[in-house]
Amino acid sequence: MLTRQHYAILEYITETEYITAQALADKLNISERSVRTRIKEINSECKGKGILIQSKARHGFFADSDSKVHIRSLLDKDKSMSDIPVSAEERLQFLCVYLLNLKTYIKMEDLCDMMFISKGTLSSTLKETEKMYSDFNIRIIRRPNYGIKAEGTEFNIRRFLCDVFVSQKFLWEAGQLHQQQTLLSIGQVVGQHIKTFDKTFSETAFQAFVDYIYIAIHRMREGFFLSIDVNKKDYVEKKDYYFVETLTDDLSKEYGVVWPEHEKLGLAVWLVGNNSRRELIRYKENLVILDNINSMIREMLDAIYREFNIDFRGNLELHISLAKHMVPMDIRLKYGLDLENPLLNNIRSTYGLAYLIADFASRFLENYYDSPVSENETGYLAAIFALALDKINMDPDRKRVLVVCSSGRANAQFLKHQIEKEFHDYLEPLSVIGGYELDSVDFNDFDLIFSTIPISISVPVPIIEISEFLTQDDQTNVRLALQSDPASVWEKYYRKELFFPCIKGQTKEDVLREMCDRVSEHCSMPEDLLSSILKREKMLTTDVGCGAALPHPDRLVCNNTVAAVGILSHPVPWGRQDVNLVILALIGKKEDPDIQKFYEGTIRLISDENSMKELVEKKDYRTLIRLLS
Q1: What is the pTM for the complete model shown?
Q2: Is the pLDDT confidence value at 629 over 50?
């Protein structure tokens, strides 16, 4: 008869072309001699079943393609085989729980036979088990002629099981799946009672409470109960005890386990102790961020990049901040809890771009968890994104400046030194020329010109006239020029031909259709532009306050970012409010160093009631550029 150890060898054989006896011995924590013995037993047991494990010098054991087909068929057929562990980790997990569930002694020989391991391997596993038990005042008792058993108070045993087998996910895959399903079910029952009784739990306290209930149910099913003096019931407030009584009544109906009075009292004492910070169940302080959360964050940052063309994907600090935040948020979303955010309104009004990104991230999380994400949660995410955006902006936007000077070389170098000394944080390396060299300059290489002489030729960049020796007024004018955004920055996004002062649509769809048609007359756009925008609108309405909406497609549709502005002939219902101005944002695929500036300036404009009122009344393109600048 094949044991689980035999089946493990068969699984490893099918996973690779060759595997050595040493590799199998390491995986199974047995000797190479035992490996060869097990393989002989497999070949003998499977004779006539099309299964043969062969060996090749300097390569190892292998099975040909036909044998692998039969092996997989056998493994699929016998999935209900014994759950006796094979690997060293599985043996440790098994032994930790098995000994705690025993009410009598068990002999070492019986354990060896049950687990198909040697006495030496069992002794090694027992040492590791004792190390894990020691932190919880649980010890292994050895009694000659009787065997061994684990001994500790029921309360400490439950502490151990909560910490190791729930918090640290110390179960192999099948056990983890069942455990998480049961925990989620218990959490939903507890969550309903919390809402009914209007109780307050932190995320970690809530999870710990659910974990404890999960372990308590399993222990009571095995016949293990707390020893607690029911006369101490007076130590618990009546409202807390009533909460536990009604909760355990529902848990009894759901899981078929009756909660005796002393178990109810134990749960109530745990609840009171936890709320008063005298934590009776302690968890390790290290924050464990699970792989699924890290993976989810990577997917979310990818989605943000596709939506906004803002790349946070390589921002390790942001990723860590999100991961730390998502550990408790993961609990809140799973169990439908909400956490009040007293700074929500301030965050929304102060950090417009961060809130827009967080709003999109919230929709991503809703799809991921299949659970609604509240505005409170969006506000917390916005604060994290705001910090990341601010750090991107910590270095000022450096300008490429051309200095035109009529005086000699020495004076020109002195002027350059003055400008660089005063404004080095705002400047790329300066270029200095004489007035006679202007004809040979490519002005597209510069953002600004500082000139000590009048320039009569037409140039496409702003000119700031300064003295040959910088005065206080010169410094003020230069600083304003360096810190402000020239109109040319906004004109590349907000083109005059895409400014539509009279959109006549009667509905949201009509407005978007008219704007898409008019944009397509001037720019190369995909045929499904409108349907892409409407698809995005179904995910989340894009009206953002002050009578403005910021619709956009559900993907990047052009090479360079442009924005079409439509001023409506009359307000149109959009979702949360009526809208009289629409900015259709068409985000480009090309990397754009100014994209964050585009978002921040746009959101600043549509969040300012006075600016919006002026633009809607004047319906003028130059007014738009001035307000953005």
Answers
A1: 0.51
A2: yes
